[in-house]
Amino acid sequence: MTVLHAVADEPCNLSVLCERTGLPRATAHRLAVGLETHRLLIRNSQGLWAPGPALAELASTAKDTLIDAASYVLPRLREITGESVQLYRRDGLERICIASMEPPAGLRDTVLVGARLPMTAGSGAKILLAWSDLATQRAILSEAQFTDRTLSEIRRRGWAQSIAEREPGVASVAAPIRDSTGAVIAAISVSGPIDRMGRKPGARWAADLLAASEAIQKRL
C-alpha cells in the first residue's frame, strides 16, 4: 500500500520511489515489480511506475455500505431543503466528501465528491470533531473557528450549524450518522447561501437532517 500511494499522484522511477517510501532499494523494487505483475502498477511511456488498470477494475466492484444507504436518503433531503447535501467522513485531521447532491437550479454550494476540507470550520467538521478522540480535538481546536464549549453544546443537542465559517456567504447544518455500536462514523450536511439558509439554519433544517440521519442508520 505504501508503494501504491507513492505513485498515486505522480509516476516515478525506482530512486524516487525509495525517497517517497523510505524503503530499501531492493525491497522497493521487489514490491513494485510484484505489483506490476498483477497489473496494479504499470510502466508508462517514460518507463516510470504508475497506477495500473487492475486498480480501476477492483474499484468498480467495491461497495461502500454507508454510501449505498445514503443514496436512498440524500435525494429526498435535497428535495425537502432545496439546497446542496453532502456526506463527510473524517480522515485524520481532514474530512472527505464521500457523497454530494446539488439542487437542479439556482445558486448552490458545490462540494465535489473526494474533496478534502479542513476540520477547523463548518458544521460537518464540528460534528465529526465533537465525537472524535480527545487527542484529535486538541490538535484541531487550537486553530478552529469554534471552541470546546461549542462541541459540548453540539453533543448535547445533537446537531451543528455554521455561518460563513468555511466560505463567506455560505451557511450549513449537519448531524451525525452512527453505526450499530453508536459510534459516529460520518456527518450528513445541508449547505447553501446564507440569503436562503438564514442566520439560524439549524432552527429551520435540523429536524429534517436528524430524520435523514436516522433513515441512513436504519438502512445500515
Automatic annotation (TrEMBL):
Keywords: DNA-binding, Transcription, Transcription regulation. Pfam families: HTH_IclR, IclR_C. The keyword Transcription regulation applies. The keyword Signal does not apply. Coiled coil: none annotated. GO terms for biological process: negative regulation of DNA-templated transcription. Residues 54-220 form the IclR-ED domain. GO terms for molecular function: DNA binding; DNA-binding transcription factor activity. PANTHER family: HELIX-TURN-HELIX TRANSCRIPTIONAL REGULATOR, ICLR FAMILY, TRANSCRIPTIONAL REGULATORY PROTEIN. This is IclR family transcriptional regulator.
